[in-house]
Amino acid sequence: MRVDYHVHTHFSCDCTYSMEDMCRAAIAAGVSQIAFCEHEEHNPGDECYHTLNHDAYWRELRRCRDLFAGQLTIRAGIEISEPHRYAAHIEPTLAAYPWDYVLGSLHWLDEQTNTLRPEFSTRFGPGRWRDSFRAYFREMQRMAGSGDFDVVAHFDYPARYFKAPPGETYDITEFEAEIRPALQALVARGKGIEINTGSLRKGRPDPCPPPIVARWFRDMGGQILALGSDAHRPQDITAGLAQASEIARAAGFTHIATFERRRPVLVSFTQA
Ligand SMILES: [Zn+2]
Ligand SMILES: [Zn+2]
Question: Ligand 1 mean position to 38 CA, how many Å?
Fold first, then answer.
């Protein structure tokens, strides 16, 4: 794959690799365009709370753009958690720099509930994990309807670490009634979704979201679909993206979305 639109560097609190190292790995992997999307967290309980140094990120990004000019197109991205909840905090950040790409994430169901921690699935009581997922997708409706972002990251994120109780299975189609209004809001606002392959490296059978969501989105008129590995290590750049690309095609997409200065640029699969 020549495009990877979700990569982290040590500007994210959960990644230790330099931007230069990630660029070199991307070039070695045959990538021609990369978007760095660093964690911007405004929930005080988050491990990455207010750890992104914007000025330092931009200095290094510009240095890498010069260093790898002609070899690698480097897009300035940011992964903002709950952009609808922290709009007042985010507005100045987005206005202060010429961002290319803004991912919107739902890492926290509400101020207290991290979607990857055990308290997520018991938020509404023991055994009521389906209610947690319903609440998550309803919150996604709110984010999709009002958040300032370009593409929703990892649409069914809690599933990445969730283990259903014995005899039960997480099946995203059970939540179609909650998911479709969120997708509809994205279509109406010209926003997109990504196929995030990080879940494959966590042992999940599907990328995030599963293929059916890309199909629903396409059938509802969705145009903007991005592909991202969510790599936090050089060796994970583009991992799983060939599979994601096949899923996108099978869902009916003819192009993959890239971004420049927050405007989508659709490229054909042969260029992606
Ligand atoms: Zn994320
Ligand atoms: Zn990420």
Answer: 9
